[in-house]
Structure formats: structure tokens, C-alpha cells
Amino acid sequence: MSVVIKVESLTKQYKELTAVDGISFSVKQGTCFGLLGPNGAGKTTTIEMMEGLVKSSSGSIYFFDEPINKRTLTDIGIQFQHTALQDYLTVEETLDMFSAFYPKVTDKQTLMDLCDLHDIADRDHKKLSGGQKQRLLLALALINDPKILFLDEPTTGLDPHARRNFWDLINKVKQQGKTIVLTTHYMDEAEYLCDDIVIMDKGKIIAQNSPQGLLSEHFSGAIIRLPIKNLKDEKPEKYGRQFGESHVDIDAEDVEKVISELLAKKISLEGLQVKSANLDDLFIKLTGHQLSETEQEEQA
Amino acid sequence: MLFFKRFSAILKARNLEFVRDKSSLAWSIAFPVLLLVGFSIVFSGDGKDIYKVGVLNTPTKDAVFLQTKYIEFVDYQDTELALSKIRQHKLDLLLDYRLSLYWINDTSPNGYMAERLLLSQENSLQQKEWIKQTVTGKQIRYIDWVLPGILGMNMMFSCLFGVGYVIVRYRKSMVLKRLNATPVSALEFLSAQIVSRLFIVMCISTSIFIGCDLIFDFYMLGSYFDLLIIAILGAMSLISLGLVIAARSQSEELTGGLLNMASWPMMIFSGVWFSLEGSPEIIQQMAYWLPLTHLVESARAIMTEGANLYDLRENIAIMITMTAAFLGLGTVMFRWDGDGR
């Protein structure tokens, strides 16, 4: 597969803060590429530099081997994390307005079919539910029939059912051969949708591969999650990684062997869980903290 | 071609947004009408307790009539000016002592009373034989004088806040950020905002003018076409000023403060409520630099003095210059994004 986007040593400095710190990666044609990380990791800044909306401090971005320019930007579609549309317009009027901005546009009916907008075509866009609004925003991002689609945290704030529906919609778009660049802090979303991912923390890339590749690179076997109180006075680090305030995660290539060892040390197995590793676990392993902890720190 | 397609799409969206925002639309129309109705009630009585008499060629020795109490006598050198005051009912009677002529306005009850006073006093003393001259002309009421001011003020608020607040709201809610991610240029976006606001302001002001004219029957000596041109030029200069104020900020509070800072001096010093004639030079100088001054002055001159566009060339030139300067500055300063992070 040919490379569609190439990012080299990209940096963004805001006074004292280095939001993005010399990252490099490439995106292959027709794939869904995920930028993962907690809030403040630099995902949105990175994607907005790729969209040409934020100027980089240094580094370069290439689309189809060309440095980013006005013409290459006409081939992209964007769905922002936070955005608003002009008030008092219906869904259809909003689509018509955006259609007028581009020389080449996707047929309105096709777009409404794809994003399931027919039932809400006459509704004021301000009166849409979260999932309906995201479907409209996706339709607007697809209106110029882009080769590359940027989605910045598209399912944040949606209920589980609406998220699932949106994921199915993204998969349909992917089947059309479009390249998708997605940011998210939901690891399950990345596992479900992405072919390749980079995990970012504090402006840097801390891991890069396919979701399965990353998991097999860093984990083998399963994870045993045990309440810390079962360890009595022993330090959790002696057994594995601390998960939150109350649990410890133990990497177990051979689950039976680890459980036998715990029993031999007279450690209670009450509340024990055995699970396979996911990207959340990988993030904790790589950074020493949970995504949710980082988000709380950010908010504080 | 694509420019007009994009421009029209944004223009249509903005107009729909305005028309569908019912409360805002209703207030834009109701506010000036309520003000005019209020003024017509307050100033419906004459309010004057004296007659006003103009005097040409004032006699050197005391004239009996000039000693009459409760009449204000005003000396005039220019007969035409004094006659125009009679026509507009600003003077009740005009006397020329050298030619023994007096003028009254046939339609003025006060003129009739002042004439009776003059003749009864002078005849009783057999002092002078006065020859009567009459002029005709409709009275200029305060409401006729204040109408251009109130309409101008309403246009000012609509232009400044209608463009300023809307752009800052768009920026803050990231509507602008979304538009910036399309091929729409700043010129296309700003042109649509300006034309939309101009269209809205002119429609509303014209409707209010026609509606109020049917009720109050305004004094109109000049041409309606000239008045329309002046209204468009005035609105353009005010819209452009709103554009400059909203060019960069994403804070509605700051922009609100700046818009108030721009609008209040115009409310006070642009001659909306009272004439600036006779006010200190510094105030008149300051007023000269305010776009609303030129809009109100010109509209008032057309309506009450019958001025034409050529007579108002200085005001017109200033409004065009202000529009060009503000538009240029606003476009250069404009930014899609907010204050950054």
C-alpha cells in the first residue's frame, strides 16, 4: 500500500509548552490510522497541523509526496472535536450550504443515505441528538468526496449505542477506499477501527504499530488483576503494575503457574480477574499511569 | 463564479438565521417604533408658553410691540433664513421694521395669535401701518426632527452589534473554525456578512420609516432616493466599524464593551436627540469623526431642509472614506481562530 501522508519531526511549541515534540509517522492509503492518548497528549494539535489549520513550529507534512498546500487541502475532509454550525438551519440546508463551498461535491442523496439523514433532513440541527449531530458532521466532512478524512474524537460524549452505530458508519466509509486519520482517547474504539496506531503522551509518540502488533509486542499470555488488599503488607510493585488505587495487574504467560505461586504465598484469590491485554493495559504499562488518571490531572 | 456561489450560500444562511430568530427580529422592529411612539406622546403638546417672533431691521428707538411680555424676539439679518423658519413653524411671526412688512404662516395657529397681538397693539397706538405677507409650509415637529436620529441610532445598534456580536459568537462557538476548514475565503465570508446585514438593516429601517410615516406623516422636503443612498452609505460605514471591532476577539464580553464604547459617544454626540449647534468646539470636532453624525446630519438635511446629494457631498465623502478605511482594516485584522491556546 502506498503512503498517503508522511509526517517528519513535527513540533509545535506554545510559549513554554511543547504540545507536539518531534513526532514522525506515515499513513498508508485506504487504512484507518489512529492517534491515541489522553487529553493534552498533543493529538488534536497534531491533527490540526495535518489539516493545515495550525502552523507547525518545525518539521514537515507531505500529502501524496507533496508538501501540504492549498491544493492538497481540497482533498481532505474534516470533522472537528468541538464545532458549531450556523444557527436555525435544517440538516438539509446545512448540507446545501457546505455543498456550495466546493467545486466538486458528493451527491446529496448518496450522502444522506450513507449517513442516514433522511428522517432528520428538515430538523433544525440544534435539535439533533449527539449521535445524529455526529452523523451530520461526518456528512459535511464527506461532502467534497475527500481522499483523506480527519476525525477528531468523533464519539466523545456519545452513548455506547450511538458510538457503535458511528463505528459501523466509519467502517462503511473505509470500505469506499478512503484513508481515515482518527484521534481518540477510547482504546476500544482504536482497537475496533484502526489498522495502525500511534500512542502519544505529553507530545511524544510512545508506541507505534497495528493494535494487535503492539499487544503481542508488549504482552504474552493474560493479565491477572488482583485486589491490593489481598497482598497484605507486601508492595504491589513486587508482583506487577498498580492499576488504580486498589488493584495490581500481573502479566501471566502461564496463568495456572502464577495462581499456584500466589496460593503458595497464602495470598487470597478473592476478587481475582483473568483478562486478555488491551490497549488500555498497554498504555498503563508504557506510561505507568492510566488514561483516566492523566485526564484527571489535566482537568485539575 | 465559485465566489458568488460561496458568497450566496453564506448570505442565505445568515439571512435565514436572522429571520428565524423571531425574538431578535421582533425587537429590531419594536425598539425604534416604541421610541417614536413614546416621543410623539411626550411632545404631543406644544410645550411652549411664549410666541417666537423674528425681527428684521430692528428699530433703533423702542418699539412698543418689542416690549411685549412672553414673546421671544430674535434678530435676523438674512430674510430667506427667517422666512424658512416661518415656513417650518419655528417662528410664529416675522417683522421687518424698515419695510413695515410682516409675515405669518397661514397654517400656524400661533402665527395667527401673534399677528392679532401685533395689530391690536400697533393699531391702538396708531403708530405704524403694517402690510401682511403670508407664506405656507408645514410645521416641523420635534418628532420630524428626531426621526432621522432615532432611525440612525437603530441602524447603528443593528450594524455594530449585528455584525460584531455575530462574528465573535461564530468565532467562539467555532463556526468560523469549521468554515476555515473549507475553501471559503475571508473575503467571501466577510462580504456575505456585510451584505446580509446591509440588506436586513435597510429592510427593517425602510419598513419602520414607511410604517411610522403612515402614522405620523413625517416632514419630507428632499428626495426619498437621496435618503436611501444616505442610509446605505451610513449603514456601510457602521457595519465596517463593527467588523473592525470584531476582527480578532473571541470574547463576547470584551467585544460587548468595545461595541458599547463605540456606540455611546455616537448616541450622545452625533445629534440623535439634540442639535450640536452652539456646543463647544471640541464636542463638534469629536462628533465630526463619528460615522453616525454624518448619517443623521445628512438624513435630517434631506428631510427638513430639502438638501440633495450634492449639498451633502462632504458628509458622503466622509462616510465613503470611513467605510473604505474600516473595511480594509477589518479584513487585514480578521482571523478565523480565537485567541489561541
Key structural traits:
heterodimer, A: 300 residues, six-stranded mixed β-sheet, four-stranded antiparallel β-sheet, 11 helices, 27% strand, globular, B: 341 residues, alpha/beta, five-stranded mixed β-sheet, 12 helices
Helix share, percent of chain B? 55-70%
Distance between the termini of chain B: 37 Å
**Estimated share of beta-strand residues of chain B:** 5-15%
**What is the tally of helical segments of chain B?**
12
Shape of chain B: elongated
Secondary structure topology:
The complex is a heterodimer of chains A (300) and B (341).
Chain A: E1 3-14, E2 17-28, E3 32-36, H1 43-50, E4 58-63, E5 66-67, H2 70-73, E6 76-79, H3 91-99, H4 108-114, H5 130-142, E7 148-152, H6 160-175, E8 179-184, H7 187-193, E9 196-201, E10 204-209, H8 211-218, E11 222-227, E12 241-243, E13 247-252, H9 255-264, E14 273-275, H10 279-287, H11 291-299
Helix pairs in contact in A: 5-6
Chain B: H1 2-20, H2 22-42, E1 51-56, E2 71-76, H3 79-87, E3 93-96, E4 101-105, H4 109-125, E5 131-135, H5 142-172, H6 175-180, H7 186-216, H8 224-245, H9 252-269, H10 281-288, H11 291-305, H12 313-333
Parallel strand pairs in B: 1-2, 1-3, 4-5
Antiparallel strand pairs in B: 3-4
